[in-house]
Design a protein that fits this description.
It is a single chain. The protein is built from 14 helices and no strands. The termini are far apart. The protein is globular and about 55 Å long. It has 2 domains: about 280 residues, Up-down Bundle (Growth Hormone, Chain: A), CATH 1.20.1250.20; about 55 residues. By secondary structure, the protein is mostly helical.
Length: about 350
């Protein structure tokens, strides 16, 4: 048990909130970024992809690095890298520089997120650990919900660069608290799966590049097909690497031998793939086609995370008594009904529709 539980929890919440907010705040700023930097809608997709690709590919190895080198060191290092990249985003003079800085942000987030959670797991014990992690998760949900309205307000009142400047004071406070009050922890000389992380990054990047070309050209051209095929081949290489690394793999392939695990992974992929598309496209359409301000577009997204936060408490109690099958089935059907409803929304729809 840590000597400074409240300050440790505060540092971890501030650190993870940086990543959670940045994952949602940028969506409402895309039209303003495009107008300022002269970027097309297809190019603007990479403002999101450049952040999410390294985050998703390096998240597991970021946690393993904390176990290897020390979680406090990696937590502070991840926050510092994220902060430097945020400043670079705010100062970017063209889209290329912005995308490079966003990719570095993603790397920083992949380091700080798992180590903030692991720090809590090591700093608390028993019932206190569960409460701390629950508070951390709830704060992340709140941060994700606050992101779009906050981003919209900043874009409307100051400009799109402010969504990156706002990270600087939060990160500074998080680093100071972590440096002074978070205790170091590590698991010893655990191996790092660098080949797997490298293959996963290339696979995700090639696949995203091919799909983006396909959507921007409205046809499956040669370059788009090449990107998708290359991504699939690299995915196969990643799985081969993970299978042969055995216990040293960052994603043990043997877990997919469980039908329950494989099914839940596929369901999560499909659900969050659909939600990600809505969160990316909806604010852009509302601003460009609907004439919404950035703040109004951000507020239009607010019911989704609020509904998730409220329903999760009720669903958790129901699942504890009845099992997970019914909530997973009916929850997926409700999401599908929501997507179907969005298809029926016309150009003349009002805010409440």
């Amino acid at each position: 048990m840590t000597r400074h539980p409240n300050l440790t929890l505060t540092a971890c919440i501030l650190a993870s909130s940086l990543a959670f907010i940045d994952g949602s705040v940028t969506n409402v700023a895309l039209p303003a970024i495009g107008a300022d930097l002269g970027a097309t809608p297809a190019e603007l997709q990479w403002t999101i992809n450049a952040y999410l690709l390294p985050l998703s590919a390096l998240l597991l190895i970021g946690g393993a690095a904390g176990d290897h080198f020390g979680r406090k060191k990696l937590l502070i290092g991840g926050i510092a890298l994220f902060t430097a990249a945020s400043l670079a985003c705010a100062l970017a003079s063209d889209l290329t520089l912005l995308l490079i800085a966003r990719a570095v942000q993603g790397i920083g987030a992949a380091i700080l997120l798992p180590n903030s959670l692991a720090t809590l797991g090591n700093s608390f014990a028993g019932e206190a650990r569960g409460k701390a992690i629950g508070t951390w998760a709830a704060a992340g949900a709140i941060a994700g919900a606050v992101g779009p309205p906050l981003g919209g307000w900043l874009v409307d009142t100051i400009g799109w660069r402010a969504i990156f400047y706002v990270n600087l004071p939060l990160a500074t406070v998080a680093i100071l608290i972590a440096a002074l009050y978070v205790e170091e922890s590590a698991e010893g000389e655990l191996p790092l799966d660098l080949p797997g992380a490298f293959a996963a990054t290339l696979a995700l990047g090639a696949t995203a590049w091919g799909l983006t070309l396909w959507s921007s050209h409205h046809a499956l051209g040669l370059h788009a097909l090449l990107g998708i095929v290359t991504g699939l081949l690299l995915t196969g290489l990643f799985l081969w690497i993970e299978r042969h690394r055995g216990d040293k793999a960052m994603m043990p392939v043997a877990m997919f031998g469980s039908r329950a695990f494989a099914g839940l992974t596929l369901l999560t992929f499909l659900l969050y793939g659909g939600l990600g598309g809505v969160l990316l496209l909806l604010p852009y359409v509302l601003i460009q086609a609907g004439g919404y301000s950035a703040l109004q577009a951000g507020l239009a997204l607010l019911p989704m995370p609020l509904g998730m936060a409220l329903a999760s408490r009720l669903t958790g109690r129901f699942t504890a008594n009845a099992g997970a099958r019914l909530p997973l089935t009916f929850g997926s059907l409700i999401v599908a009904a929501g997507f179907a409803g969005l298809l029926l929304v016309g150009a003349d729809a009002d805010y409440w529709t």
